[in-house]
Structure formats: C-alpha cells, structure tokens
Amino acid sequence: MSLYAQIVQGRVHGIFEYDPLPVFPSYIVMIELPIDSPVEPGWLYEDDTFMAPIDLDSSTVTL
C-alpha cells in the first residue's frame, strides 16, 4: 500500500491508501507520500512542497 495526498485548490483534501493507484480524471491531483509522512488534510501544497497551515488562533501577533 502507498499513501497519497489528494490536492484540491492548493490544499490537501484527504490522505488515501491505494495499491495500485487507480486512474483518476486529469483534474484530480494525487501526490505520493512516504509512509511516515506528517502531512494531513488542510496542509498547503505549492511548487512540490507541503506546508503545515499556520494556526492563527494560537499565534501571537504584535502590531
């Protein structure tokens, strides 16, 4: 089994296991992840890079 992140509008929509990866329509983007990947739904994906979203509720911003 391999893990895949489904990307929708630059965000991880879900994490799925497939063996093998099914054929999807071209508008569905699936990116293979390492088994121990910390990537979760809600993470950002841009230029082949995953980024955890910033939790603004727990961040302190000084203006």
Radius of gyration: 14 Å
Distance separating the two termini: 48 Å
Q: How many helical elements?
A: 0
Topology pattern, helix = H, strand = E: EEEEE
Strand segment tally: 5
Q: Kindly state the mean pLDDT as a whole number?
A: 89
- Net shape: globular
What fraction of residues sit in β-strands?
A: 35-45%
Largest sheet: 3 strands, antiparallel
Which strands sit side by side, in order, in the main sheet?
2-1-3
Query: What level of helicity do the residues show?
Result: under 10%
Structural class: mainly beta
Task: Enumerate the spans where pLDDT stays under 50 for 5 or more consecutive residues.
Answer: none
Describe the structure.
- By secondary structure, this protein is mainly beta.
- It contains no helices and 5 strands.
- A 3-stranded antiparallel β-sheet has the order 2-1-3, with no helix packed on it. The chain has a two-stranded antiparallel sheet with strand order 4-5.
Keywords:
two-stranded antiparallel ribbon; 63 residues; three-stranded antiparallel beta sheet; 0% helix; mainly beta; globular; 41% strand
